[in-house]
Amino acid sequence: MAVELDMRSPDFEARFVALLGAKREAAADVDAVVAEIIADVRARGDAALAEHSLRLDRVDIVAMGVAIGAAEIDAAVAACDAEALAALELAHARVTAFHERQKPADLRFTDALGVELGWRWRPIEAVGLYVPGGAASYPSSVVMNAVPAKVAGCKRLAMVVPTPEGRINPLVLAAARIAGVDEIYRVGGAQAVAALAYGTQTIRPVAKIVGPGNAWVAAAKRRVFGAVGIDMIAGPSEVVVLADATADPRFVAADLLAQAEHDAAAQSILITDDPALARAAAAEVERQLADLPRRDIAGASWRDNGAIILAPSLEAALPLVERLAPEHLEIIARDPEALAESIVNVGAIFLGPYTPEAIGDYVGGSNHVLPTARSARFSSGLGVLDFMKRTSLLKCDARSLAALGPAAVTLGRAEALDAHARSVSIRLAAEAGR
Amino acid sequence: MAVELDMRSPDFEARFVALLGAKREAAADVDAVVAEIIADVRARGDAALAEHSLRLDRVDIVAMGVAIGAAEIDAAVAACDAEALAALELAHARVTAFHERQKPADLRFTDALGVELGWRWRPIEAVGLYVPGGAASYPSSVVMNAVPAKVAGCKRLAMVVPTPEGRINPLVLAAARIAGVDEIYRVGGAQAVAALAYGTQTIRPVAKIVGPGNAWVAAAKRRVFGAVGIDMIAGPSEVVVLADATADPRFVAADLLAQAEHDAAAQSILITDDPALARAAAAEVERQLADLPRRDIAGASWRDNGAIILAPSLEAALPLVERLAPEHLEIIARDPEALAESIVNVGAIFLGPYTPEAIGDYVGGSNHVLPTARSARFSSGLGVLDFMKRTSLLKCDARSLAALGPAAVTLGRAEALDAHARSVSIRLAAEAGR
């Protein structure tokens, strides 16, 4: 059973702070091991990749080939359920349509002094996509990570996925094909991140690495950051359901459990102004847990990290939402739009009783890679801009340089950067002498 | 004297790869020390801040007050040269006007199925700005970092700046006032980064930290990443000047030295198709170095990291520019626009003979915080988007859920996430039973 908090209790603030501060994930200290693996792959390339894959994934990538080729993907696609393939195609089409709208515009303008200014956006040329193996190998995540890269125009999208004991989810390969992934390699862990960052004889290096992974992958991404770009470091997932008396407790409970089943470290929180809903939803969670396939995981998450918070009103609870800065916020209440309007710190908002978060996970169209662990305070879900970069453009002519130059000379000298000042004054003097 | 390379030499590729791979900055291994300082500030707050400041900056921040107050800023502004203040005001106005154009648009639309989708952008609520002390304490950088945050609408912009022996550049405080910085604290180093990330009794925590710093600051930013957002890890600065026979060698030399004077680790590279320009520019560099105040630094940079590359044509040299992925690219040639058009990996382009990079450093309007050390392959200069975040919005009604839901149920089951599938199917069943 989740903890129950009441905003009107005298100890509420202390208990809420404890909830906020609770460490849901033990940070394994794998940094030293990861540093060694990265150094080894940099030094020995494919040979190191093969050794670490044999040791950690018990797979002989030399015998099987590092790259997963077209014939292997064909066979995987043929092995997939037709309904699942159709659902993935629908997801791909909708996610593509949504992300097409995120393409940024270039700009070029001339200001009053005659200075030409602007910027232009270009795709990152080569991107690496990390896909976890085993239980957390989700085809939907392949679509969510690959589509914005492809919409951005990235020319080369290289995917890595570990294949423990040689096993791989065929639907992951199908998703990669549907999403237009250009290369797939059967490697995972820190060694795969190192290969993408620095290249090996077989895998050409990329400029940015995205995608979720375990503690080893996260530590490796943190280490290679700078040599390549990385996306956020993914933490355990969370949902806040903000619901009033109009909400159906069965829907609320189902949504809390959908979050909880991801991982024992996931967090599901119900905030409501209706004590009856709080009771009914809590009872429904237990009832629905009983025959849920992943009831052990979901039950542990709900017991250890779940919470039900009673508030005098949903408006009064909004500051709690801001402090939680959840990855996902569902609002199942009389006027969801009005409640959503003021909230700043949240990755995605799901409005009304007919928008379970799972729709956004799969086929809504928006991206399901969202900021976790309170990082919605400072970051956004994955999008097209994450796969592009902006170059600024500046052009003066003799006249606009004459207008702006003296101020630049002044500032260069004020900063004791005389060569800066001179690079302007030498031009002003040359023009004056013409 | 810089190295000279000729694209037509048989050993060119090897020498170019050596130039690309040269480590310009010794990475001091300060990570363990930084980890201790951060842990200490988290544990003891202001007391730890005071001790580290006394030890490292030889300044008693308890006696002076951690915060720099209005009276101290007034006094600093009064001590500034009027011409420098006016130049800063001009820089602020132009940088603000440029960045106003970067404000992103919200979107809301309803698709053919009746699903409402969209996103909205909101400013990050609290941002920390690190400003180096001592020699690299640049008022222009305060403007460049603060303006996009203010244009984004950040409510709270807290600046930290070390004051070794109590000294601070008055123009830095003036720039902070002009740029609308809300709070200023006289602390620096890893301890200041820790204070911004986790808060102390005096300094409230922020959600994101930006600004350049030394190896300790960079290591601290890397460590607190996740708890807060960070900008890029700044490396040594670089320029490529792409010039043909039309270029004035005096201008070219001045621009190479403007880059070189930053830091011995800075890198200036001239690429030209004109051997006469190569010779004349090399001679001009030596001539201009002779009476340059920072000739020791600029000379070391040019000697150790500078390069002149002869190419059969500027078009033929474009692939080299891509591989260098320079922070700054100047094009002083017959048709700079045509050459600029195809280049992807570059932070900023300065077009034509009248656009020395120093104009962009100060008063052009575009941001001078740009991706260094080849990170232009995957990242952009600082801008308004770095201080905002996007929340996605999704809303289905009963009808659009009926259309989309079955595919979500299929994918949930295919991923063995049955609670995901159920959160949709429970609604579909409830509607069907109505």
UniProtKB/TrEMBL annotation, chains A, B:
GO biological process: L-histidine biosynthetic process
Amino-acid positions noted as binding NAD(+) in the UniProt annotation, renumbered to this chain: 130, 191, 214
Cofactor(s) named in the record: Zn(2+)
Residues reported in the UniProt entry to bind Zn(2+): 259, 262, 361, 420
Cofactor mode of binding and number, as noted: Binds 1 zinc ion per subunit.
Catalytic activity: L-histidinol + 2 NAD(+) + H2O = L-histidine + 2 NADH + 3 H(+)
Transmembrane segments: none
Domain of life per record: Bacteria
Alphabetized UniProt keyword annotations: Amino-acid biosynthesis, Histidine biosynthesis, Metal-binding, NAD, Oxidoreductase, Zinc
One MF annotation (Gene Ontology) recorded for this entry: NAD binding
Gene Ontology cellular component list: cytosol
Binding-site residues, substrate: 237, 259, 262, 328, 361, 415, 420
Keyword set includes Transferase: no
A Pfam family per the record: Histidinol_dh
EC number annotated for this UniProt entry: 1.1.1.23
Pathway(s) where this gene product acts: Amino-acid biosynthesis; L-histidine biosynthesis; L-histidine from 5-phospho-alpha-D-ribose 1-diphosphate: step 9/9
Residues at the active site: 327 (proton acceptor), 328 (proton acceptor)
HAMAP family associated with the record: HisD
Function: Catalyzes the sequential NAD-dependent oxidations of L-histidinol to L-histidinaldehyde and then to L-histidine.
Matching PANTHER family: HISTIDINE BIOSYNTHESIS TRIFUNCTIONAL PROTEIN, HISTIDINOL DEHYDROGENASE HDH
Family: Belongs to the histidinol dehydrogenase family.
The protein's name in its UniProt record: Histidinol dehydrogenase
